From TrEMBL:
This protein's name: histidine kinase
Alphabetized UniProt keyword annotations: ATP-binding, Kinase, Membrane, Nucleotide-binding, Phosphoprotein, Plasmid, Transferase, Transmembrane, Transmembrane helix, Two-component regulatory system
EC number: 2.7.13.3
Pfam family, one: HisKA
Amino acid sequence: MFVEGSAAGLRADEFVLSNLSPSVAQRRFALGVVLVLLVVFIIVAGPLSSMPLRRVDAFVPAYGTAIFLIDSITAALLFAQFSVLRSHALLALANGYFLTALLAIPWTLTFPGVLAPEGGLGGGLQSTVWLYVLSHAGFALFAIVYTLLKDADPMEALSPRSIRARVLTTVGSVTALGCCATVFVTAGHAFLPRIMLDTAEVSYLWYYVVGPMAGLFVVALVLLWLRHRSVLDLWLMLVLFAYIIEISLTAFPIPYRFSVGWYAGRVYGVFSGSFVLVTLMKEVTMLYGELLRAVVGQRREREVRLLTGDAVAATVAHEIKQPLSAMTMDASASLRWLDRATPNIDEAKAALQQIVNNGHRMGAMIDNIRTLFKTDARIRTSLDVNNLIREALALVRYDLQTHRVAVQTDYNQSLPPIEGNEVQLQQVLVNLITNAIDSMATEDGDRVLSLRSKVYDSSCLMVSVEDVGKGVEPSAIDLIFKPQFTTKANGMGMGLSICRSIIEAHGGQLWVTANLPRGAIFHFTVPAHRQH
Ligand code: ADP
């Protein structure tokens, strides 16, 4: 049920209520419960307490079943916590609950009037009373053991097998103890000290038995008060407190059965059983919710990672296609220069130099794609936007020539520098220019690419890449920036989405407008570099 040491470096024991410190709200709530329990106690403990009420025969079996269910479920949840935290204290507390659950069965069956008028299982009046005492004293002792052991180190080296063995051994021992006690108090009821004379009268021994039993609860409560630390401790203190009230109601004024005090005592009994159960259930539900959220989150993260993986692959392919074809063309050109009757060494060298430049650029680009998908800071330098445009145009000059595209430039010569990543911004420009060329390549008429740089909004620079191509359909204006949207036969649809993330990472914006009468204008802004 619980997992330890998840991928996020979290530990299971950071979440369970036997380790969490109670919040102020939880403390206040507990205090409120104490006050309510006290007020109700004061109301019913007075003269009202001995007022007889109607005898409801179904009450005792219903009460016994409720205690059995509540305590056994609480025990099961505490055993589950023990299996995670391996704390002896939790094991003791779980066994305490298990004991009270177990003894609730013979208590109910021996109660006079449930199975037989004098009490079932061959027991008598004394059997029920002694089972009540044993169950309560047993729980108080287990609670004391819990309190004394709760700050001890957990049993680190326990394997799941030995955890199971410990649970089974202790459960076995408690069961054996419970069975022996039941046999002893039923078969041997005639030998038991008579602490109760009849349903309305107790012997003097009663106080010597119930007094120390209540004393055990007080000791447990005081010890826990001194050592309390966790949410579980807080709720257990409430449980002990409710038990003390229950004992005061059912044992200290002479316990007339089916009187107001007696009924109220039983209700407190159910309450004291439920406090820990309710909080454990709440915790299990909360943990389940957390687990669900974690699993969903993990799955989403995995999907995003896969998506990122796809995006990286597509980006690499997209980005290296252009320099690679430029390199092939440069290589063919240099071969042609060298193949001539009189080889033109200078031209061949220039073409080879372009290959070297493109090779470097491709290397830088791949590095950059890696950093694009990482969150660490990218290298930024002070850059001149006009230079960036010139360099980008140089990189695509073959494409421009091949498609007979005329270039017009309109640079603002007094632009302030910007701060950014040179390769990334060049990537943006090359992408926009290549898209513009592609868009014009399918159209008839003059092909003119205009590049402009200017000041925008006083603190930014703006670059515009203008073409007279087929333009962007108004319905596609937002779509084109989405990954994998393409209208080209062998397009990847990654270029613009990457451009936008690069520009946004630089604190700018990238958008498109129509170029009338035809074509598209892509604009991007980058903040000017503030000199300190
Ligand atoms: P790809 O170029 O692989 O298709 P992009 O993300 O760069 O990926 O572009 C996405 C789509 O945006 C293109 O397929 C095209 O339909 C549209 N587009 C981009 N630039 C222009 C432009 N200058 N003119 C017209 N349409 C364009």
